Amino acid sequence: MFLELGIKPENKFWKYLLGSVFIITASFIGQIPFSIAVLYKTFNSNKAFPTDSDSALKMFEPNLTLFLVMISFAFAFAGIYFVVKHLHHQTILSITTARKKIDWGRILFSFTLWAVFSLLSFVALYFKSPENFVWNFKLVPFLILVALGVVLIPIQTSTEEYVFRGYLMQGFANLALNRWFPLLMTSLIFGSMHFFNPEVAKMGYVIMIYYIGTGFFLGILTLMDEGIELSLGFHAANNLIGALLVTSDWSVFQTHSIFKDMSEPSAGLDVILPVLVIYPILLFIFAKKYGWSNWKEKLTGKINSVESSN
């Protein structure tokens, strides 16, 4: 099974800690172009150096910002590949799926399902409160955004999925006795990575319910489906459709999207609804399509020992 693919005598947990440091370092190296751009812009314009990431992200034209930010994820993904191959002596396939090859059909189905749902949800929200949105569409910048987004955003989302639902989930499996522990730890860490997002400052800590809940949802997909294909598709659709469809002044970074949300953000039903209603519905759809069963064992059962998994 998927978790057991990473359980080997030589795969001690300290290797995952070391590997994580390497991946983070690779990501920092990928941030150098953005840092150089910020320094150049600061000195060239004789403005004060930005003291927070939100100010730095707003220094450049949105498409340029998107490009500079996403470079770090490409470096991080290269770091994942290096660590998995040379530190753990595994293949990328082994942290992707328990199947003999990557199931691209699963990725496409998950992407399409969430993309359609996201579009329909926005249409309903727009007709309910059209005054909250303004037309933000500009043809050339939008086409550049599409070109950049289609290539770079899946790299970003895939990197996050490979780190949390692939690499770290197998890493914590080497430390745990049951399957619940990797699910819990990766979900909490995934949620905490969003702690410094501007949305948290605007909406309050209650939005962490959404981030951590999303981590649990993606983790459950991985454990029940024995691979990260469904989470790869979902995450890519979530970020890509969001970037193309609507932006706001309080989001992590702005894009040349079709609409701009002018409403004052507040954490309410929209934070709780996905976690308690929408995600369970999606799990039901996936379970029916892929014939999932034995939920208790797959989510909370014991992890096979090294001896029994080899």
UniProtKB/TrEMBL annotation:
<dbReference type="GO" id="GO:0080120">
    <property type="term" value="P:CAAX-box protein maturation"/>
</dbReference>
<feature type="transmembrane region" description="Helical">
    <location>
        <begin position="203"/>
        <end position="223"/>
    </location>
</feature>
<protein>
    <submittedName>
        <fullName>CPBP family intramembrane metalloprotease</fullName>
    </submittedName>
</protein>
<dbReference type="GO" id="GO:0006508">
    <property type="term" value="P:proteolysis"/>
</dbReference>
<feature type="transmembrane region" description="Helical">
    <location>
        <begin position="64"/>
        <end position="84"/>
    </location>
</feature>
<dbReference type="InterPro" id="IPR003675">
    <property type="entry name" value="Rce1/LyrA-like_dom"/>
</dbReference>
<keyword id="KW-0812">Transmembrane</keyword>
<dbReference type="GO" id="GO:0008237">
    <property type="term" value="F:metallopeptidase activity"/>
</dbReference>
<feature type="transmembrane region" description="Helical">
    <location>
        <begin position="16"/>
        <end position="40"/>
    </location>
</feature>
<keyword id="KW-1133">Transmembrane helix</keyword>
<feature type="domain" description="CAAX prenyl protease 2/Lysostaphin resistance protein A-like">
    <location>
        <begin position="143"/>
        <end position="241"/>
    </location>
</feature>
<feature type="transmembrane region" description="Helical">
    <location>
        <begin position="267"/>
        <end position="287"/>
    </location>
</feature>
<dbReference type="GO" id="GO:0004175">
    <property type="term" value="F:endopeptidase activity"/>
</dbReference>
<feature type="transmembrane region" description="Helical">
    <location>
        <begin position="133"/>
        <end position="155"/>
    </location>
</feature>
<feature type="transmembrane region" description="Helical">
    <location>
        <begin position="176"/>
        <end position="197"/>
    </location>
</feature>
<keyword id="KW-0378">Hydrolase</keyword>
<keyword id="KW-0472">Membrane</keyword>
<dbReference type="Pfam" id="PF02517">
    <property type="entry name" value="Rce1-like"/>
</dbReference>
<keyword id="KW-0482">Metalloprotease</keyword>
<feature type="transmembrane region" description="Helical">
    <location>
        <begin position="104"/>
        <end position="127"/>
    </location>
</feature>
<feature type="transmembrane region" description="Helical">
    <location>
        <begin position="230"/>
        <end position="247"/>
    </location>
</feature>
<keyword id="KW-0645">Protease</keyword>
